[in-house]
Amino acid sequence: MRLQKILSGAMLALGYFAGIAGAQIKIGAAEALTGNAAQYGAPIRRGFELAVGEINGGGGINGQKIEMVIEDEQGKKEEAINVFKKLIFQDKVLMLFGPTLSNSAQASDPVAQSAKLVVFGTSNTADGITSIGNYVFRNSVTEADILPVTLRMASQKTGLKKVAVLYGNDDIFTKSGYDNFKKALQDLKIPVTTTETFAKGDVDFKPQLTKIKAGNPDAIVLSALVAEGAPMMVQARQLGITLPFIGGNGMNSPRVFELAKDSSDNLWVGSPWSVENPAAENKKFISAYQKVHTTLPDQFAAQAYDAMYIVAQALKKIKLTGKLEADRKSLRDALPGVQWTGATGPFKFRQVAGRDGKPAGYDAVQTAIVMMTKSNQYVIQK
Amino acid sequence: MLAQQIVNAISLGGVYALFALGFTLIFGVLNVVNLAHGAVFMIGAYAALKAVVVLQLPLPVAILVAMLVTGAVGWLLEKFIFAPLRARQAPHLAPMIATIGVAITVTSLIEGTFGSENLRFPAEVLPAEILSMGGGAQITWLELEIIVLAFALMAILLWGLRKTGAGRALRGLAESPKAAALMGVNVEAFFRVTSILAALLGGAAGVLIALYANAVFPHMGQPMLHKGIAVVILGGMGDIRGALLGGFFLGFAEVLSVAYIGSNMRDAIAFGLLFIVLLLRPQGLFGHVAQRRA
Amino acid sequence: MEWLDSFWATYNTLVLSIGTNVLLALSIYLTLATGLLTVANAAFMGIGAYTAGLLTTQLGMPLIVALILGSLLPAVVALAIGRPTLRLSGVYLAMATLAFGEVVRILILNAEGLTGGALGLNGIPQLTQWFDVALAVVLTLVVLLRLARSRIGRTMAAICQDEIATEIMGLNVRAYKLFVFVSGGALAGLAGGLNAHFTFFISPNEYGFERAVDILAMGVLGGTGSPWGAVIGGLLITLLPELLRGLGHYRPLINGIILILIILYSPKGIWNLFRPVSESTRLPAAP
User: Fold this and answer.
1) Same domain, A86 and A134
2) What DSSP designation does A179 have?
3) ipTM
């Protein structure tokens, strides 16, 4: 078993490094490799590396191998801008992935847009990103698309009549999630008993949870990342709150089982990716990932992995002339038409409107899988 | 709900007080705003976690291990940073900036070694039984332990400072290092002891709060540092009782503002209160007269 | 020339950041040189950034107007809170200004309708050109260097050394303190406005504790003996992460170590190492 793991790791590494040796297609990635957001940037990087290793190991794209240039944007907006500029003007990449946080994307994506090369986010779900322009792409499905599906399924199965809402009001991701939750709740005509907030880095949620408990809701709708969400679930159970939690895709991570252990049951999330999804492509991805990293992958890794394959499909269709500007443009033109079934299921793009009403960037179109946690597993609900 | 919120306030206050004790000690005696206290706190949490998970030690032993590790860090801080700066007659801001550098370095070391993801203590280790108190309120054993510990530590420290010779020397030192030296107090040794002691307290706080929140991650010291500064100002910088009372005051202010005003204004109220207290009573609610430093 | 174009395209944000960071360092130099430990400049920067950003995005005002108003508003706020706050001294002043900064940040966060709250202010036009920043820095530097040698500058240093003695000599200490506090606020606001217009997007969390600590570090590391210290501090703090980029994962680690080493070996700041010998006969200005 060990030997097998070493061999697979070696093969992947060979495939990856072979890419560097016969360096031909330069793809950049700006992700948070240090700092607070590194817990998301790290799995994203692993997803990219896995995909690149496989693609290069299979002969590359039209005979050319991919060379990845990964830079650390530290989860900070100014760094993201600097790193983007370095990748675009100094390394002269063909396109680039990232950044990790929606916050950074707002600042750095315009740089790619005006430089006319594709920027592809795999973890940016907040509003206002793809509307920046027609060179901005993402395969991370927005909360606006997933949450209504999750809510509808959860309310169907639990018969909930009213909910309480808890969200992080100082982070663009959780705040954006909240805005979408609010709208979905209004559309479904589900009344809210109370809305409470917390800040990133908080460790104590008992005051908010106590207030929520007093309002007697049937479920708690949560816009948070696992780092805060898991302690929240633990503390809620400690206070005697047995209600279901309904989360945004920030809560879709197997880490919730480690972090919330006995209190992790009864959490509803929707996402295009589920570790339990038995589809063949997903199983292939999960076992390939586990061979190298032993742990299970999460949504961040899955989306990064698929994103690389999506770009690979577009690259297959175009002919690279070696003239940077022209190549960057032909990649951008080939990308919207790509349809791909990867670990996150069938995927295609959908163009959105920019702030001025004209057609701009491209969001993801994927179906959400709704899951509920039970005994340390995400159980798919139908 | 009120009963539970009061319980919440007391246990949150206990958490803040624990952190603030070490922080205020360094300011009171060494006159340094130790912005590395958050990092020390975080090291305590990691040390205990690894002691439990890797060395398979029982929790109380792990806490002692954590305190040993952080005590060593406190010693290092004093020996390599505070003492040299004092010897060089550095402006009084310099040590503070140095501690910022220490905090960055240490946090990055831990992040590089253990990764940036949240880790947690294994469930078996946590004293998680829940007790019911009157009025529908519930509290866990752990929270009770934290509150009791905060009070106990304060009591021990106060007793030590008032009743023992060493304690009196320390208080004299805090007032005036020169006078204490003239009285034969080994100033350098006492500074070292203080730094170690403060770090011990920080480490203990780190473990307990890591258990409370069940989250251990490299940047966990940062938000605590903000709150710690607020507590110490409210209570009076350098004042032990102030750290405790300030901690509870902040705990109550935060919880009650969430319960009755709105959770999004929680931090604004906490810091707004701080600002007002400073304007009206700069020495803090319980501190002694502020030293005018022009 | 192609080399220059490529260099500028890659590094223009960095160069502009150096400029605004130098302005920020100069803003805190003013108060530090007077012996005031105020750390509200991050909040003033935020107020300036949002003011200028909102004026250009919502009202379409030209940059220069937005910048002027973006420096005025923080100055007014500084004036308002300065009077009561500056009665404090030492660490208490620092904490009061820190608390004030947090309150400002949270107010901006919660004023969603106006500022966009956590979602930030988006789509700020890229109006800042290198000559705007260069002009601001050069002008400020010239003014402050003049100031340092003038009677005002000597009074600042005197207050720093011994406030009570200065008061006894008949100088209106309170007025001087307010003057440096308000000017510092205006400078920080200007830096904020300039910065907002080359980064597209601003959010409340950028103007909190971390930024306040950065600004303080710039002031102290560079040295408070002269405005040149601020220039050094601004340069250092901006360039250091960039220079260390090759170290990848170890970057913050080395960053922290360098900070510690600098303070240990030159506690009065780097400028102190370069001070011409003749100046050492003057009264030391570091607090």
Assistant:
1) yes
2) H
3) 0.80
